[in-house]
Amino acid sequence: MSSIVSNQDYERAILSGIIFAPETMDDIQETGLCASDFYHPFHRKLFIGLEYLYEHSAIEENIIKQHMGKAFDEVSMIAVLSAMPIPNNKIYIDKVKEYAQLRDFQSLAHQILQKVDAEESLDDTLHLVHEELEKVEEGNRELFNIVTLDQVKAEEAEFVCKSWLPFPKHTVSLVSAGGGVGKSFLLLQAAMRMIRDEKLKVFMWLSEDALSLSKHRAEMIASNILESNIEAFSKDLHIAGADSETIHFLEESRVGVTVNSKLYQFKRMLKNYDVIILDPLIAMFGADENNNAHARKFINLFTRWATKEEKTIIFIHHGTKNSSQSRGASAFVDAVRLVYRVEVIKNEKGEIQEDDMRWIILDKDNNGAKKYLGSPKVQRQVFPKKRSVIEIEYE
Length: 395
Description:
The chain has about 400 residues and is α/β, with parallel strands linked by helices. The chain has helices at about 10-20, 25-30, 40-55, 60-70, 75-80, 90-115, 120-140, 185-200, 210-225, 230-235, 260-270, 290-310, 330-335, 370-375; strands at about 160, 165-170, 170-175, 200-205, 235-240, 250-255, 255-260, 275-280, 285, 310-320, 340-345, 355-365, 375-380.
């Protein structure tokens, strides 16, 4: 490995500044500087000690020595005290943090070479690279953005498809129903309406259906419900089907729950789409579907993606057996912003009454979809009125 990137003079100047002017500790901590950013082992230990003493005692040389005990190094401490403290140390802090990141990249490069030498899989190597890059990116951000209330512009949440089946923009939603109810038909029509009415670009992964069947359904919706030519949707509606092998974006193994490296490739492939519809959720979830921690981690992967890259993501989710209620861990529902439940319309005898219509029930609404939906329970035409020839093709 090449020589280590560091500058002990910068590190000493920062530490010396804290010792001679302890009141600067607040400003230094606000920069995000932490002990691991220092290269010299004594400097790391000293910074930890100074943080503790600032909160619980006083920063004085004798107290520092007593607090650090065997970790105290007289020679290294003299070097720190001999450094010239400067009133504005932001430049030094920025450089120390930059050097720490460069050392991380050096370590990453070394790990990559080790994997190549060991002839490990390309997927494993890419996973390592993406994980480390995300850590660096996250480390460069503030934990959260604090503003005063008068700095915030009041705005209602924005929605796509708000005139027919509203979904909040740039977040994750869920549509749940039992088998054979028509979830895929419903979302296919919603996608076509988004394209026609809002000029959005939509990707749908209908992983349980052949591409030819999805095309057939889209043609029926276009001609019999939307009264449009299917060609009007071809440019901006892109699909994948059962011929594409599904990916477990979150996987459980002996080493725990990990993110599949293919998620990063998946996100790159879909960077130009406004709306992403994935059917069904469970086909892309490789952990314990009854484990709330696993479920929340999975949804959070997509929530961060939706927020960061302004994607509207919709999962189609199977209901529990003989029910339209979402199956699996409750965190699947808790972690999303909107949940629709789809049910057949029945009369008092329990007989299906409206063959082409379905109840759309708003089970969760954090962003105010009801304003556009009109009611927490509405009817929508899902199937063409004449469907005898395609009876067996529904879900």
